[in-house]
């Protein structure tokens, strides 16, 4: 198989499975009130590093908005019981997979994120 024929994906299905599994674990920790605050902070630090190492940094307008919305919802009482971390991670995985499959979308996103003030 030619190297050009094989498409490189930043997050494959196994990596996505582990990302979602870890997100579900952090969402289960959100049922404990004091642990919720600490686990939410640790979760988004973990996922921001994990996505960065996979080549999908949060310093992109769409991904940053998704991650920030999910993180803010985790700090609202009773709303934090919803699986917002898992929903945010699934949204981020879908965004990265779409960018990998649509080169034009990836170029557009790079163009938008390279503008000053964005």
Structure characterization notes:
The structure is a single chain. With 118 residues, the protein is an all-alpha fold. 68% of the residues lie in helices and 0% in strands. It has one domain (13-113). It has helices at 13-29, 33-53, 61-73, 84-101, 103-113. The N and C termini lie far apart (40 Å). Residues 1-5 have low confidence and may be disordered.
Q: Indicate the radius of gyration in whole angstroms.
A: 16 Å
Helix content range: 55-70%
pLDDT < 50 runs, ≥5 residues:
1-5
Number of strands: 0
Compute the separation of the termini in Å: 40 Å
**Count of separate DSSP helical elements:** 5
Q: Quote the average pLDDT.
A: 83
How many structural domains can be distinguished in the coordinates? 1
Shape: globular
Main pleated sheet: none
Structural class call reads mainly alpha
Approximately what portion of the residues adopt beta-strand conformation? under 5%
Task: Please trace the helix and strand order, writing H or E for each element.
Answer: HHHHH
Spell out the key features of this protein.
118 residues; disordered N terminus; mainly alpha; 5 helices; 68% helix; single chain
Question: Mind sketching the topology for me?
Answer:
Layout lengths: L12 H17 L3 H21 L7 H13 L10 H18 L1 H11 L5
Helix pairs in contact: 1-2, 1-4, 3-4, 4-5
Quick recap of the structure?
The protein is mainly α and 118 residues long.
